[in-house]
Amino acid sequence: MMSDWNTRTKLVHEGIRRSQYGELAEAMFLTQGFLYPSAEAAEQRFLNPTDDEFIYARYGNPTTRMFEDRMAAIEGTEDAFACASGMAAINGALTSLVKAGDHIIAARQMFGSCLHVLKVLQGFSVEVTLVDGTDLSAWQAAMQPNTKVCFFESVSNPGLEVIDIKGVADIAHAGGAAVVVDNVFSSPIYSKAVELGADIIAYSTTKHIDGGGRALGGVVLGSKDYIRGPLETYVKHTGGAMSPFHAWIMLSGMQTLDLRVRAQAANAELVAKACDGHAKLQRTIYPALTSHPQHGLAMAQMGSGGTMVALDLAGGKEAAFKFLNAMKIVSISNNLGDAKSIATHPATTTHKNLSEEERALINITPGLVRISLGIEDGNDLLTDILNALGAV
């Protein structure tokens, strides 16, 4: 019956495992280990544990399993594994798929820490080719017989380029490679990654899924064979599993995920349309604007412009800093997807470790400000942002 439920219902009810007490809220099992009724039972559990049998919190936990089941249900995958952070999820997804001598193709438009993981893998003799993620011919040209993974953000951080999931998946699958998608900016609410051909999907649950800026978390989703095979084996032995407490927080956040993300996206569209063409801006970047280079793809792939807007101020870093410092409601931080609106200057924070040439290659200018719209009143946010632009 649960498969017939719509997303909002699944976000509230999917995956619940009640104890003998019949609690209404999801129970938090703060235990690192589990008891066995006999030595024979312990042996059997280690040999072949069922979905309702647990061994150690690094391997799995009832609270964590509730979260994994709920995430898999709304994303449309067979299974999921919860990780300690978004970067633990990305690292696990990539490292579990490759060995020395293998080849990864990745979009160059990417969060700085994702690029760092690729550099680490290169140090272990994994070949990495960075391409313009929006250019399907570049993906095709980069394919090699030893290509095992094509990796990209469905909407790039921070430039909001939209990558053609189906287009890349067709190329990857023809060459026998798996498609790994970092889907944070799309969020599970606007995700069609599975039906478009993604094999493995990763989220930083620190962002929209928590939604309250409370805890780190990540999740990897895919087939049961992959999740309970290479991925689980890698993560449980290297220690990147989510804690039960954080899983409980994520479960709480998921109940309002659909409501929050849709409100955030509505605020983002309101702000983007009002700022588009503003005299203080070189560019207003938002996928739902017809001026966006991948507008049509974004609407087909997400059905929304998402919760993020990027504003490129004409006066460079000085203007960007004046703008950031003038806002009263929008806070300065490097998180995103929060119920509170947050602004970031990527060139001096999240992408500061890239060279000036590398930042220019992915359109991170000194004047670029990334804004994650929250759930505050849209008119209040718009007034705050327009007043801050006026102060530049």
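^ that was protein a. below is b, sequence first then the tokens
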Amino acid sequence: MDDNDDRFAVYLTNYADNSTIELPLNPSDLKIKYESDDKTQTVINLGEINQLGPLKLSTIEIASTFPKDDHFVSTADFREPTYYIDWLEEIQKSKGRVQLVVASTELSRTMTIASFEPGFKDGYDGEYVYTLELKDYRKASYKKVKKKKKKRKSGHKKSRNSPAKKIGRGSTVIVNGRLHLDSDGRGPGAYEKNAKRKITNIATGHKYPIHVSTLSGGARGWVKKGDVKRA
């Protein structure tokens, strides 16, 4: 895809090996479902009230088909239906993540495969119909609290400067450079300028090896190593 390619296209990238597929037929609808974890309670002399809760993981459901031939497909890289099915099933079995990108829009986010249902409809085996439900990935981190030890008094010692920390997954960085769809540089997009981002993935040996997101977890894209510096 080049700079002038502004057509609607849905891409999925496997975080494990950076392989990317484009859905052969675009879904007729693509909606993001935002839902909060609200609870209702009954209060004496007041009745039922709504106790507002935090946002649940948002979901995207895609319903489309995997055709057996390349007639009317929306991708130039057409594959057999079993290729797409095996690709998605392997990620789901391995508890992996995908990067969803919708070309010509700003929709780009890290998600997991919550459910995948391929099959046939109305007894017709000329194409595979499928429903794919993707759910936002939210990383949970736990910190072990260590009991502080009392420092022993000792003679004065010359202090040494601590070595600079390396940049890696989870590092907060400043980005100045162009975002791309994958680590090989496909799908060049917007430019980041002095943007404070977080590193979510590193693909060693690739031209654009660093994937960054917003501090709240919204995926942005892949950039060169020289485009980032520690915040």
